[in-house]
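Case study 2.
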Amino acid sequence: MKILFVNNFRGRGGGEEFLRDLLPGLAAKGVQVGLVCRPNTPLADMFRNSTIALYPIDRPGGLRGIRTVLQTARVIRDEGYELIDIQRGHDIVQSWVAAKLSGKKPLLMYTPQVSAFSRYRFLLSRMDAIVTISRHIRDTLIAYIPKMASRTSIIYYGIDLDKFKRTHVPQGVLRKRFNLPPGTKIIGTVGDLWKNQIEFLDAFLRIRKIVPETRFALVASESGIGQVQEFKERAASLGLTEALLWTGRLSKEEMLSFYADLDVAVCTHRNEGFGIWILEALSMETPVVAFDAGGVRDSLEGCAAGKLVPGAEDMAKEIVAILTNDALRQQMSDAGPHWTRKRFARDRMIEDYYTFFNAMIAEKG
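Prediction:
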């Protein structure tokens, strides 16, 4: 089985973390795995000197992009890839044309990470399969292109649970960095500020009226987008500026200590594709409270370590209940790792994709 993944994203987000966990697992099962990505990107660095066949192909704009398509077509033709798994919407055109030019007629599959499809209706309908990461994305896509219902499936993320153990990482790092007094409660979130963190500020104000020394830690850039300034102005108007802890971006190792220092994690994004970081927090024994919207539902519905709420007022109530009840928090903390191990283990994800790819190729004959 020969599968080529295409992902030309310049940065590192949930989709890239997904590939980090999936591709080596497929290769270990005997799949010939290739990856087309931009050179000098986190993804290229991630798989350099690995068992994954790496094809660093630049992706310039305009007519110069034709060279990218031709190079991708050559990879498909020369290596005989049977299936192309497209990871980002902006890679659909490149991959579809390259597959046509290769002369090999590989199967085409799209794995969307977000629910934005408006530019790709024509080409999405030409995919042999679409695998989404949540019901939210599946339902949004089918509502947009109803005829794709029979070709659209869900395979949930899975993470390497052995890496996410509270007892295996340094604790107190966040508290030491910001010189927090003993007993200070920390609420934390992950993601740049276009993810609706501003809506949490009203809830945070309510929380601090009952638990005054609570802090809100954000793994996010403190500058660069308009939402940051809007967030800061709103926080200042509520008198919350000094209660914010800006960590900036953290490495994977630093994220483990971040989760370990949190009393509660919050997800405020109402259009989240899924939210890998939520699984990580749960695995690190951190209770999670999230708005009842988007793909987050798939990771928290029925989870004893998490709460889904309709709005800021209910979010404040649930968080206060956790922060002021040690027994409740411990109960939720204990439930998190059990939940992720049961439903979101990396080995399960790898096996699900392996089975899915096998079935697609076998059906083609």
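The chain has a mean pLDDT of 93.
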